[in-house]
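Structure tokens please, single chain.
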Amino acid sequence: MARASIAESRHADGVLGLDHAAVHAQLARLLESPHFRNSKRSQALLRFVVQAALAGDQNSLKERCIGAAVFGREPAYDTAQDPIVRNAAIEVRKRLAQYYLEPEHAAELRVELPSGSYMPSFPAESAAPEPAAPRPKAHGAPLRWIAVAALAVIAAAAAFLWGARRTPASDLEAFWEPLFRDGSAIQVSIGQPTRLYRFIGPRMEELNRLFGGGEPDGAKGTKPPIAPDEVVWVAPEYLFLRDALAAFKVAAWIQSKGHASRLASVAQTNYSQLRHAPLVAIGAFNNAWSIRVTAELRFVFEYRVIDGVPHHCIVDRRNPTSVLWKVAQPASGGMSEDYAIVTRVFEPTTEKTVISVAGIETYGTLAASEFVTEPTYLEAALGAAPPDWRRKNVQFVLGTKIIDGTPGPPRILAAQFW
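Here you go.
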């Protein structure tokens, strides 16, 4: 019998003695928990594999069969080109692990989906009692007990290393843990200028001189009209320097913790990619992903006209008429303060955790990148955080002073945990 068939047979043997009613009750608890409630895909896969296992239907627990039965794929679809079942199984394993990590669930019947298999296991119920160990004979007993002791030491060391690997060493690592735990390369999406044009056509050099400051003092005067076909939009080709520096700082932090990242401009970031990878969105008004992530949260980015002057703002939706954090538009090189929102939230549309590192202007974004990569700043911001903040969505509003064109240290202005 092939190795996979042997493994599946052993799982099936373990299912035979289960209390099916208890398993169904535990399945219902899992599906109604916050870990599964907002993911129809994870719910559907877990429900299907558990019910198939209890029915003894091993043939249905093949990847192609699951793809057809659960996700509506054609029976002969190419699983190599469409990994929907494998991706959904990764999500289910992650959600199960999160569920059983919570102390209130530790004593419940365990449902697991072993890596490399779609046959669930139920170790809390199916584990048979170990037979009593025979008394060692006089001859050879010391070697046997040495071997037993060595195995115990190895097991203890493995448990220690596993615990050390899974337990964040600092509050900052705990903040990043949902993205690290995913296991996929983290997409770092960099905001880009939204209004950037280049002159083209026969008058290109003349217009560059007139509008670019290269015009002699004696020749200054009224600027000539520009025809629509004399300019072309080139924003997708460029990045703001401070946004790029913020992205590099974040990517370096991710890699320093042994995880992979992928830098991409917002123009190169699409929804399909984000279904398969956690996201860090760099920038606010120049990054649609940051605006989308924060749109329904307490602290949001908005455009408002205040006393006849347009502003980019951060608004507290609990007190929307009082705008404390704003920057007049267009922002000038002489601005003295900028503001940012750092958000970590589970995004139901992609079923991934997203971190947004977003300043009103690029000064705030660069300061926010320091906040999410240097432990001191986050630790200072957690003074009033609830004890279980690590499992919650979080938002921080930050401020930074700008001195000689350089943002100062980020300081915490407000926070929200839910």
